[in-house]
Hints:
Blueprint: E1 10-12, H1 17-27, E2 34-36, H2 52-67, E3 71-80, H3 101-114, E4 124-134, E5 140-151, E6 167-169, H4 181-185, H5 197-210
Amino acid sequence: MAIRIGAGPMVVASHNEGKVREIIDLVRPFGIEVKSAGELGLPEPEETGTTFEANAILKAKAAADASGLVALADDSGLAVDALGGAPGIYSARWAGTSKDFSLAMRKVEDALSEKGATATEQRRAHFVAALALASPDGEVETFTGQVDGTLVWPPRGNRGFGYDPVFLPDGHSRTFGEMSAEEKHGWRPGAAQALSHRARAFKLLAERLFGAR
């Protein structure tokens, strides 16, 4: 049985403004009131999981327990084939304590350069997002989305957040950093496809909870 979102707000269990903004954009068509963990003063749990899904569950359950509300958490990152899947679940940590993703993108590029990965086919990468929806009674459901592409250098565009300016999704000529939020998501209720990893995961969630297609 699917978790039911009641009359109260749903908590987005994140202090990352970019993630919160994207999730609010995706939820908006369903008329759900949203509060972020930051707005409610909820602490950030330590991410001790070894997979995106495990960390998403950990964050969603912590927010649901602390708030008494249904909570939606995201754990996502960039996985680069030539780097053995790194930075992966450590994508945010590569940005350091200051969350400087220009530094993180440079680290990825330097690591690729050390491996001589200059050709397009050597620069394959994937954005992965795991969404976990948790209720205060302990129920949890998870949904995972992935988008494949290649990494470009130098970064292109100042939209989006994180590694978006270096990620060129397959079949497109612009990076996520050059796309509007609507283009990057590529999905609204009634649309057949979703583009971003987060939108693909949310499409699965919407189908499960709201019967949206």
